[in-house]
Amino acid sequence: MSLNMYQASIPVFIRMLGNLSAILDKALAHAEAKKIDPSIFFNARLTPDMYPLSRQVQIATDMVKGCAARLVGIDVPSYEDNEATIADLQMRIAKTVAFLQSVSAEQINGSEERKVTLKLRGKEVNFIGQPYLLDFVLPNLYFHITTTYAILRHNGVDIGKMDFLGSY
After folding, report:
1. Contact 132/70 with Cβ under 8 angstroms?
2. pLDDT tens for each residue of 86-109
3. Does the pLDDT of residue 168 top 90, yes or no?
4. What percent of the chain has pLDDT over 90?
5. How open is the CA angle 149-120-95, to the nearest 5 degrees?
6. 10-34 helix and 138-154 helix, angle to the nearest 10 degrees
7. CB of 5 within 8 A of CB of 67?
8. DSSP letters along 92-157, please?
9. Which of 94-133 are b and which e, b meaning 16 or more Cβ less than 10 Å from the residue's Cβ?
10. Per-residue pLDDT averaged across 39-68, rounded?
11. CB-based contacts of 151: which residues, under 8 Å, 6+ apart?
12. CA 33 to the chain's CA centroid
C-alpha cells in the first residue's frame, strides 16, 4: 500500500497540532496550580539566542498552513503574529486546524511534483512538492513542537513523551 500526499500531510499536521494544543493546556493548568504567571511560559526559551515558546508555536502553525496552501496552489493564509497569551496561541492552533480541515485529499494528492518556491533569509529556495513536505515541512514541524515541549518541560510542566505523541 502506498502513502499519498494527503495522508503524509494533513492528518499528520492536525494530529501534531492537537498534541501541541494539549501540551499548552497542561502548561496553563500547571501555571494555575503553582500560581505562576503563564506569560513566563509564553516568553520562555531554552537559551538566549533562540525564539521563545510563542514564536515556536507561530512557526509550527505557519509551516503547516503554508505547506497545505502551497501544495494545493492557493494563497497562504496570513496571520498577524500578534498573540499575547497562551490562550491566543491556542486560538491560532484552532484556526490553523480549521484551515487544514478545509483542504481535501483531492486537492493535495498529485502535488508530489508541484514546484514550490520560498523566500528564506532573503533568497529564493526551490522545492518539488514531495521533498518539500518530507524533507522541509515535517522536520520543521517536529522541531518547533519538540522545542515547545522542551521549553515547558524545562520549566517544570509535567509532560512526557506520550503528551508529544498523543493517544492512539
Report:
1. yes
2. 999 999 999 999 999 999 999 999
3. no
4. 96
5. 50
6. 10
7. no
8. HHHHHHHHHHTS-HHHHTT-TT-EEEEEETTEEEEEEHHHIIIIIIHHHHHHHHHHHHHHHHHTT-
9. eebbebbeebeeebbeebbebebeeeeeeeeeebebeebb
10. 97
11. 41, 44, 45, 46, 52, 53, 56
12. 27
Written as one letter, the residue type at 89 is: L
The mean pLDDT of the chain is 96
> What does each C-alpha distance from 162 to 38, 41, 93, 118, 158 come to in angstroms?
23, 20, 20, 33, 11
First to last CA, the chain: 21
pLDDT of res. 1: 65
Provide the grid cell at 70: 502551497
* pLDDT tens per residue, range 70-84: 999 999 999 999 999
Element (H, E) at 33: helix 10-34
Other Cβ atoms within 10 Å of 161 Cβ, number:
7
- What amino acid occupies position 153? R
Domains detected in the chain: 5-160 (1.20.120.450)
What pLDDT score was predicted for residue 118?
Answer: 93
